[in-house]
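Sat 14:20. Reprocessing the chain from the morning session after the first attempt stalled halfway. Input below, unchanged.
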Amino acid sequence: MKKEYRIRKNQEFQDIIKLKQSQANAKFVVYFRKNNDHLKVGISVSKKLGNAVIRNKIKRQVRMMAQQVFDKEQKLDIIVIVRNKYLSCSYEENKKDLVYIYNKIIKRMD
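Finished this time. Tokens:
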């Protein structure tokens, strides 16, 4: 995912989370807000999920899922927070859950 499609600054994360628009399931919490530009995605993985190697692996996987699932033409800022259940399931199962949440978000925005 290119740098212009990422949310990286802590203040941006906090601004999106403060709006309290979210969808969640056992594996993800996804916060979102409309923007005027293009899709931007931020990923957060807690230290509770494992050491740095495991957290970076999870971030790479979620970044790949986001690239495949999210429509870059959507004018949204999205923050994906990964929960503990993520580790106990396969990549494909996790991807299905992310697709489900994304579809719920799109329906809410219409």
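Residues 91-109 form the longest helix (19 residues).
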